[in-house]
Amino acid sequence: MPWIRLEFDLDPEQTRVSSQLRIERAPESSREDPLVLHGEGLTLVSLSLNGQVLDARDFQLTGTGLVIPHVPDQFVLETVVVIGPAHNTMLSGLYLTGGVYCTQCEAQGFRRITYFIDRPDILSCFEVRIHADQELQPTLLSNGNRTGGGLLPKGRHYAIYEDPFPKPCYLFALVAGTFRQHEGTFRTQSGRTVALAVHVEPHNWPRGQFALEALQRAMRFDEDYFGRQYDLSQYHIVAVDDCNMGAMENKSLNIFNSKYILADPETATDQDYENILSVVGHEYFHNWTGNRITIRDWFQLALKEGLTVYRERCFMAHQGAQVVRRIRDVRTLRAHQFTEDAGPLAHPVRPQAYHSIDNFYTATVYEKGAEVIRMCATILGETDFKKGLELYFERYDGRTVTLEDFLEIMEQVYGQSLHPFERWLDRSGTPRIECRSRYDRRNRRLRITLTQLCPAPRSDSEPDGALWIPVKLGLLSDAGKPLTFRVEGRKEYETETVLNQTQHRQTFVLDGVQDPPLISGLRDFSAPVIWKAVQSDRSLRILILSDPDGLNRWEASQEMAVRLIRARCEASRNAQTLPSQRAAIRTWRGVLAGASSDPALTVELLTLPDELWLCESIRPFDPATVRSERDGLRREIGSGLKDLWDGLYQEFASHQKRYRYSVEQAARRRLKLLALSYLVWADPDRYVEQAQRAYRDADNLTDRIGALAALNDLDHPARKKTMDDFRARYDPFPLVLDKWLTMQAISHRPQAIRDVETLTRDAHFNRRNPNRIYALIGAFVQLNPAGFHDPTGAGYELLASEIRKVDATNPQVAARLAKAFGSPWRWEDAVVQKRMEKTIRDLANEPHHSREVQEILANTLTERAPI
Fold this sequence. Notes:
single chain; alpha+beta; Immunoglobulin-like; Neutral Protease, domain 2; 8-stranded mixed beta sheet; 5-stranded mixed beta sheet; 41% helix; protease; metallopeptidase activity; zinc ion binding; metal-binding
């Protein structure tokens, strides 16, 4: 289908879509094969083939599309259908929201617009003509370059767009509405000028400038680092409030959830600015990894998403605080992807089957997919990996590809077979690496033995055999100094190396090690695995204070905290005396004393592991005890370091500059607010008033919401007073009130479940808007394990009730909520475990669920084999 012409006559109730398709029979297709087009929710008005109108005997309408039994090898098919955008609550296809028409076609939304072969390997050049009311929809946008437009009778107007680059239909986009633009330009390295525009609703115009700056940064980075130039004369970004996804990379017309576009100091936090920079970059980078080169089928989804996430992270690393950004990536991976990989919803990076592809926009596809690409870059080295990317772009531009195609290119550059590495694509589960070592003092030789423990394959189609795991490591002396060594078989001495483990059990020999070493393993988190090494508490303290790898300093600090909280949980269950934390407090004091040299890393080193990771790391599964003992350690850190926390807070608060988003300013604000949080938790009688004052005096949302967060877990009148003020102050700003919902959903207060139930009746909460659902229900079930897994089962019933309500209008969002039932954790208490399983089973047995929700619930009830 090399060419398609579409004409839209927009109307809320009856939008008329006329299509003209030029169709050619594929060489592998038999002349007896019928033409099968996908289509859902369409009212067919007319159908003609090569100008001849077809009657009902010439075709068949099915529940999923249109079948024409006999067609020639080449022909033009014309259809006219009617759709109702105002009634499209699924937010897939063409829908009307707040007076704005917009589309969401990935993964299979185009079939809700017109009849088409809705697959990613069908590439077509699009010509689009849009008719709309000139007063209500003065802005008309689609993919490609605008080639015409003008006035029509009865107060309507039109615009014509042509996209010269063939693309799959999931990248089609249309927007029509009233907007105000932030406009700019970008001059490419080849000298072309690209017109840029960020379109926002008129009342949001003051908050759109940063998104334009983010786009310009991303375009420059892609040229400088990856050698990729933009290819059209214009680039549009549109912000809409109702959107299932964060954003969509449609060719030249990105459609964004407004939360990833709108920002100013009063209504956006530092994290919001970072998210905008990251997501704008991500969607722009798709122009080459997803658009110019797209995927052959949806089983290759991790190629376009994983590779683009990798490119996005390279971009963000170059914005500053590289180590801290990597730490946040790892924290996200563990909290979401490792959990997914350990439960019944685990699947490989390349899924083997699906009922609804929308269910596979998962942490595994995005996060683990990016880590697979990153491992490939580690194995090849930065220079050769970039050579491989250049060859990949040259060879496959304008074509559809598979993950094997990508690895074949890398194999050519590497000069060795990467076949064992391909097992990462088709194996689910998180490998565990056990590291053991033996030092030969006389010969100055260190033997390191790495053993892989991988989850058993979930099906016969998952490959067996060892994975290729690149392990980056270095050695430290007992005094914390880096040691040099030479890997057996290599000539050069080094202080850091990559050991490529390709066997289940493999020993590496390091020569020239002058002192008994401390191993700093899996530096930079070089592979998405669980690293297990025998390390004493003293070794952890040395790593925290001295390791030149910032991520491993953080890893050691997290492990020290996990050990302390685990010991506290055991003591609590057995009614024993709590273990001493003095040595750990002294270590963290040493970290905090040097905070001014790297405030961003200091924040990470002094932030305790989140409850999700602790519940994964501590057995038996008991989220209430984990929370209680984590809070207890938080109180001890606050009390034990109160003098330093107070000094830091006063210093940063008194020398604060006028708000400007920058990596440096954001780091200082985060450290200041972390200090306030520890102080309030350690001594509420003294510091609650200080938090209230910080809230009142704040000149930006980061400081104001940080002060509110410091009060959020307390049962104190100041909390309610401040929460009520926040609700009233930000009533005109829905995205800010989403933070108010989330704050209450994740509170450690025991009445959080009741608060969430009450908030579902708040005027701000609207189940038709995905942002509201994710902010309240999503936050509660994903970020409040003690609340969601309440032994009474109230959290499970709350989620089941919301799934029923949301599934009736938006199955994609309902299915994402249902994934919370797919956690890997099992209660020791059989009664509570049965209560959870009964809730899931009762929900699964109810009729009329969408196929998206049915698939998630069915898979959730499947048990996962243990390691």
